[in-house]
């Protein structure tokens, strides 16, 4: 069973406002590329263990 923690935007209204004012996405191209690479490596690792 996977444990998940819910995150609520209103926990830190100042931080929420700062992100809204920046009007920039949180994930840039490098972050997305690295994340996809890690996901692919994990998938391959899982498949090789079968």
Report on the structure:
- This protein is 60% helix and 0% strand.
- It has helices at 13-22, 29-48.
- It has 50 residues and is mostly helical.
- The two termini are 20 Å apart.
- The mean pLDDT is 79.
- It is built from 2 helices and no strands.
- It has a domain at 26-50.
- The longest helix is centred in the C-terminal third of the chain and has 20 residues, at 29-48.
Q: Which percent bin holds the helix content?
A: 55-70%
Q: Major beta sheet, specifics?
A: none
Spatial separation of the terminal alpha carbons: 20 Å
- Tally of helical segments: 2
* Class based on secondary structure composition and strand pairing: mainly alpha
Shape category: elongated
Low-confidence parts, pLDDT < 50 over ≥5 residues?
A: none
The helix/strand order is: HH
Radius of gyration: 17 Å
Number of strands: 0
Q: Mean pLDDT, nearest integer? A: 79
Q: Beta-strand level of the residues, as a percent range?
A: under 5%
Helix and strand layout, with pairings?
Elements: H1 13-22, H2 29-48
Short structural summary:
This protein has 50 residues and is mainly alpha-helical. Helices cover 60% and strands 0% of the residues.
Task: Please tag this protein with its features.
mainly alpha, 50 residues
